[in-house]
Amino acid sequence: MAVLQMLLLLCAGSSLAEDLFSPNVNIIAEFEKLKTMDERIKKLEETLSKVSSENEALKTTVHDLQNKLESFQKENEVKKVAFSVGLLESGTGHTGPTNSQKTLVYKKVFSNIGGAYDSNTGIFTAPIKGAYYFRFYGHCHGGTTMAVSLLKNGATQCSLHAWKPTSNGNASNGVVLTLEIGDQISTNLWANTWIYDDPASYTSFGGFLIFPL
């Protein structure tokens, strides 16, 4: 701004210096021109200052909107929680029987959005407070007994059973639970029972966040 004003004044001064040597010069008129030019420069400076202030305000607004968008995106990512897993990585075989209840560790991970399911322990840990839906399926062969329970923090919520079917047996159960952050969900195979994986009939476990609370 200062450079612009200086250049304009120098040009005006040069022109005035040339005009002063002219016999027809009107000094008062020339000074009036300089005065008018100075007023225009001041108005230009005021306009540029106003534009600069508005630009700073706009930058602040844009920055705030960017922060809100990032916060919304992070919050939305956290709210996406879902998993689907199969019991055996190979997709075929059996687990059991054991002398006591055994936590089923599902090794074949089909999806794990949010990373709340741990394939090393078989435990789902709620990342946020909310209402969740869980469903589990069990498969057994003829002549064997199958019994599996779904647990919340170690307490049984629901179970499925197949008592020595004459041919292959399947069972399924599901439940909606309200979970706090850190609550754990798992499935346990009962003592002295079997559970199987076949290519056409997986023993599986899954769930998802219905809505946060």
From TrEMBL:
One of its GO terms (cellular component) is extracellular region. It is found in: Secreted. Residues 27-82 form a coiled coil. InterPro entries: C1q_dom, Cerebellin_Synaptic_Org, Tumour_necrosis_fac-like_dom. Residues 76-213 form the C1q domain. Residues 1-17 form the signal peptide. Keywords: Coiled coil, Secreted, Signal. Its main location: secreted. It comes from the Eukaryota. Pfam families: C1q. This is Complement C1q-like protein 4. It comes from Carassius auratus (Goldfish). The lineage of its organism: Eukaryota, Metazoa, Chordata, Craniata, Vertebrata.
